[in-house]
User: What shape does this take?
Amino acid sequence: MPRTTYAVVAAIALAAAGCGGSDSGDDAVAHVGGTAITRAQLDQTIHHFEDEASAEGRPFPEAGTAQYRTAERELVALLVYRAELVQSAARLEVPVTERQVAQRLRASSSEEGEQPGAFARGTVRAQIAYEHIYRKVAAGVPAARRAQVVRAWVDKMKRDYSTKVSYEPGYEPGS
Assistant: This one.
């Protein structure tokens, strides 16, 4: 996923931001094909953005507010997009391996012994998936047209997944 997309999602989540329930961490909030996006994954993502907001001296919406529910829905959309990328890379026969994720995390680790969290692992996995997709889809395309071709492919991916993505009540973006 391009860095600008993360920035947009973060800005939406932080600016707009519903209430956390008592869901079990194993409860699904969405499904992408056969992959469940769990409440635990959503909680980890929310925690990441809360930490980022705190580090930047910005408030994060309070749990139980309409702004928090909006943030939850936007972050579920981020997790869905990541799953779509990873599944699409696998379908294109350029899957992301655990080794690739671990190598990228080691290369970008700022502190010795620091263990990346689930959000960081998911971010790296989605970035590598996007890179694999980009290389596969843009292969042989003149440089001036690559971004356009890849953008069209991602748009098609989103259309294709429109029937493969489902949300639990209250978690669909815009609900």
Remarks:
- Residues 1-23 have pLDDT under 50 and may be disordered.
- The first strand starts at residue 28 and ends at 32.
- The domain at 3-165 is CATH 1.10.4030 (Triger factor/SurA peptide-binding fold).
- The chain has one domain: 3-165.
